[in-house]
Amino acid sequence: MTSLDVLEFGLTTNHQSIEIKSHFTPSGLLFATLSTKAPDFDDYFTGLEDLINKVDFSKLPHRRSISYEGKFNWKTMYRHTLPSQSKCGMSSFRTCPSTKPGVARMEFDYYHAGTDEEFEKYYKFVRQVALEDFELCERAQMNLESGVYGEGILF
After folding, report:
1. Claim to verify: residue 111 and residue 42 sit in the same structural domain
2. Is residue 82 located within the same domain as residue 131?
3. Is 95 in contact with 78 (CB distance < 8 Å)?
4. Quick one: signal sequence residues (predicted)?
5. Digitized pLDDT (tens) for each residue of the chain, 155 residues in all
């Protein structure tokens, strides 16, 4: 993919084309927004590109993807939609709204440059962390619905 390819993608909704702002890093990561009002990449993520360019993410082969639904509002985890890197591997996930009220879909992609055995060890660890996050989301949603705490950003 070249930076020219990235500049040409967009979204169509209600038969209208919407430009999607994007930034493709030399290290192989694509950042995109759904709002043309979003700040420029360099303004919002000052210094990030210098940090992430230390790793060539395009050299990490895709190893596995999974997706499942959870009983929580997608906004419980949306701010944590990001790549997570560790030795020889990277995982990324996103939390998406669904058409069902109170249900969100979590999607995970796993990349790893090691052997199959090394990948399975890495995968076992990152899945455990992801399942703990998933459980926290469902319990936070239950607490919100039962009035244990009010709406707002959870820290």
Report:
1. no
2. yes
3. yes
4. none
5. 444 344 444 555 666 776 778 899 998 888 888 778 889 899 999 999 998 888 888 889 999 999 989 998 887 666 556 677 777 888 888 888 888 888 998 889 999 999 999 999 999 998 998 899 889 889 988 888 888 876 667 66
- Between CA 42 and CA 44 the distance in angstroms is 6
> How far is Cα 12 from Cα 39, in angstroms, rounded to an integer?
22
Which residue, of 59, 88, 103, is where some domain finishes?
59
Q: What total number of domains does the chain contain?
A: 2
What is the spatial distance between Cα 86 and Cα 35, in angstroms, rounded to a whole number? 31
Count CA atoms within 13 Å of residue 111 on its CB side. Answer: 17
In angstroms, the CA 95 to CA 74 distance is 6
**CATH assignment at residue 79:** 3.30.530
- Maximal CA-CA distance, the chain: 50
Domain limits at 29?
A: 1-59
Q: Is 83 helix (H, G, I), strand (E, B) or coil?
A: strand
Q: What are phi and psi of 6, to 5 degrees?
A: -65, -40
DSSP letters of 14-78?
TTEEEE--EEE-TTS-EEE-S-TTSPPHHHHTTTHHHHHTTS-GGGS-EEEEEEEEESS-GGGTG
